[in-house]
Amino acid sequence: MNLEQISTFLSVYQVGSYTKAAELLYLPQPTISHRISQLEKDLGKSLLIRGKRRVKLTEEGKAFLPHAQSILGALQKGKEAIERIGLGATGTLSIGCNNSFAHALPEIMDSFTAEYPHISIKVYCYPTKELIRLMKNQNFQLCITRYASNDSEIVYRPVHSEQTKLFVSPEHRFANSGYVSLNEISQEPLITFTSETQYRKIIDVTLSQFNLTYQAKYETNNLQLMKHFVKRNMGVCLAGNLTMRNEVKQKELVQLEIEHNPFPPIQIFIASLDRELNSLDYLFFKHFEEGITNKFEFQKSLSVLSSDVW
User: Which keywords annotate this record (predicted)?
Assistant: First the structure.
């Protein structure tokens, strides 16, 4: 079975005649017949019946038709993606992003727009449930989220996994510690997301397993405000590596390890409808994946430096 045979099968079906398909493809009719025969031989079933007026599909042909169309459709999308890259991609890219991850988008967007300056971009920032609803309503086909659901219409592609860390001000008493225990963390004022968020629920469940209580001193859905409170040494914050990456790099915050870290890994997913991505979505997906990898490499090197110091 090959693409020529599949393409010929679709042409014969669409025009309803071996003769017309031969004219359309500028091929001898025996070549058309041979390709169909070889395809049917490979599949072990007859696909077409020659009628008096028009070629018809067998039951097996009807079953095979959508798959043949899908194969050639995917090939065409691949060609379009290559052409876009070669000619300079254009169009409008629409994506969704989980509120808690929006802080990490600027750097990735900067590099994406530098590489593809002719693409216009729309970004929708909402909680995960709203993102999924909007995606199903065709507002966009792809979104970035920290959480996955059991939804048969959605495909979740994991692109990054990271551990929860403790972040404090350089003036905090923990700042010169290599590791901090859960018990010590629970005794500090905590700067955290509000109680209805998924990440806050993970914190609550994890600490309750150790019979630990804590004081949620400042609660907010605004990440910049959380960072402000931590920088002012008004409490400590539990978060993923990428959340505070720039502040740690600029030495505005200190990242610390948690002793016997019990928190489950924080996942980052690209979620999309269960269908082929269009060429612009695919370009962004690959760029995002590479960008996250680069960020992660920075964090690994930072961890190595920290371990050397402590």
Answer: DNA-binding, Transcription, Transcription regulation
